[in-house]
Structures are given as C-alpha cells and as structure tokens.
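User: Could you check the structure of this?
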Amino acid sequence: MYYPYLANVGLKITSKRELVKTNSLFLEKLMGISMKIEQRYKALMQLKEEINENLTGLDFNRIKELLLWLAQSKVYQKLKREDNQLYMLYNFCSIWLEEKKKLPGIGITDDIFNNISSLKDIEDKYMTIEFGVLRIETSMPDEFYEQFIDTIINDKISGIALERIIALETLKKEENVLEVARRLKKRHQIVTAVILLEAAEGTYLKNNDILLELSNCWLEGGQEERALECLKKIENPDEKVYELMEKIRRSNKK
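Assistant: Sure, the predicted structure tokens are below.
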C-alpha cells in the first residue's frame, strides 16, 4: 500500500511492515520542521526588536547607521522578503536612498521616514499609500481620491515614494501614475506631480502619455523650456503635440 501523506515529507512507504519501522523517522522529521519554524520565529522577533530600537529618534545620520546595520545583518538579509514588515522596511530604505539623491537639491528635506519610530509605523504608512493608489485603480468615488491626495500633502509623501509603491504594488502602473499626477496638479501640488512623473519616466521608458503630462505640469509651473524638452522626447507626436510645441516656441520669442 502507498501512503501519500508520508511521501509528502520525503518518506516513501510501500508496505505495512515498513510503516512501523518508519514512524519514528516521520516523527523526527516533523519535530525537525517544528524546531526550524520555532527558531525562525525567535530570530524574526529578536530582529524586529532590534530594528524597532534603531528606528527611534531617527535623523539623517541615524538612518544611515540603520541602513549599514541592516546590510550587515545576516538574519535581515535572509528574512527581508519573507515577512511583510521587513519587506516594507526594505522598500522604505530603497526609497530613502533615491530621495536623498534627488530631493535635497531642490530644497526638500522631508523623506519617507518622517514620523516613523517603529516597524508598525512603516507598515501603516506603506499600507496607506498602497490602499490609496488601489482605490484610484479600482475607480472609487471622488471623495476617496481627495482623501488620498490630502494624505499625500499632509504626510509630505514624495513623488519618488509614490512611484515606487505604485510600481511594486499595483497592476495598472502607468495609468495610476497619470491619475495621481493629474489630481496632484489639480490641487496645485506641481512639485510632487513633477517628481512622480520624472521618476515614472525613468521606469516606463518612452511612455508618451507620461511625457505629455510632465510637459503640462512644467507649463503649469511656468517652466516652458522644460515643457518643450519633454515634448521633444515624444515619439511620433500627433498634430496637437506639434501645435503645443509651436505655441511654446512663439511664447519664448516674445
């Protein structure tokens, strides 16, 4: 007789005689699996406790120290993609590095770690952004859109953070970027919209809709030369794009 439930854990039994003989092996294997799960759980809880200690009183130097410590932690490197909070922390670190490359040069000092002092804070912030974008993706009523834009403004969430989480967690990526950017522009949040679209331009190469919306944002902000640069990148532009380019050129000559 074949015992498939034992075969699932690597023990192939074909007779009743072998069953008694291998029962102890089966129990030993289960105990080994159980011990590994328990050890992993203890290691995870200890790691999270240490991370939470490192997340208190964050400033620029403390965050750099945190990133260095995480890079050297073998437990974190092993578990960062297996636990939701660690996965979100990993993405926060990547976002922070991008923010610090680009945002200080335009006078923005806020970053993704604003008001963060625990892994729970990271999870809450990440889920707020993710669910906000998913509401847009699923065409929820306008009041939900406005609540999400309010959150972006009040929590000072950067365009870089928005683009990364949209790319990681949603299906209609380019469409979501465009919708969020348009709603930010409508609320006069031009800087955040531009940063979002520029980050998306690097992710979704040669997307004419993103380039056109970025051009519109630059025009809204009175940056006609930059708007023209975006329009020139559009492949196979239609008549409306040519007309807009000509309008900008005539305006620059005045």
